[in-house]
Amino acid sequence: MLESKSKLYYSIKEVSEITDLKPYVLRYWETEFPSLKPIKNNAGNRTYKKHDIEVILDIKQLLYDKKFTIKGAVEELKNKSNKVETVETISSSQVNALKEIKNELKNILNVLNRH
Known about the structure:
Layout: H1 12-19, H2 23-32, E1 39-40, E2 46-47, H3 50-65, H4 70-114
Antiparallel strand pairs: 1-2
Helix pairs in contact: 3-4
């Protein structure tokens, strides 16, 4: 997808070439998709990060390949974002549970070593 030596920022022309989308499509999508917000430099030009390009490719897949409407694609991206947050929360609670188990096992080992 992106060149091996990833840059920090890409111009709209570069993103247009990478994603095979016209710049006016990218500008329009910014108005429709809250998750797509490239920053503008001091000259007012859009600068895209790698994450922005990944979001654009996700949007493109939803609209062009899976035939979602724009509204449907916005909802799908929100759901995807919520799923990621849920997985992180679950992982955090699992880590805490594992720490408790580890401490209990250490306590059991200490008791067994005393006898």
